[in-house]
User: Fold this.
Amino acid sequence: MTDSSWASAQLIKAAQAGDHESIVAVLDGAHSHVRRFADHLCATPQDAEDAAQEALIILYRKIGTLRATGALASWMFRIVRNECLRRARVLVERHEPEPLAISAEDEAIRRLEAGLVAQAIQELPDVQRRVLIMRDVLGHPGRTTAEALGLSTAAMKSNLHRARSALRLSLEA
Assistant:
């Protein structure tokens, strides 16, 4: 983040004190940085925008609780990361068929496994993660995925193969 004037200590302190103009300035300045970060983490542009908006809403509501003014950027990015992970988990869970009767133990194991899968997907390189989510989680066709990510079909297939292999290795470990 090269332009940190939106996150200056003086501006953040004024926002924490409830100064409306300072809060607006912090939110406006943070939006492009938060959105760009979300674009790299989330599966779809819609999820990225939603995650960025969620982070800005949390910032608006809780800026008064921020202890160190220098921690604003890392705090915002952690919120975005967590929101993207949450959305990925929801997508994974949405596409899993629900059994008729499930025990509490089975539910706990399923949630643990979904969390491990989401974390393993999060650790993939950016392009591989996006290809994997678009193809395997969202079910987009190969050509659509390649075009959306600005890749050739061959490059998309190669990245998908690498992502699946890396995910398999990560989950077997």
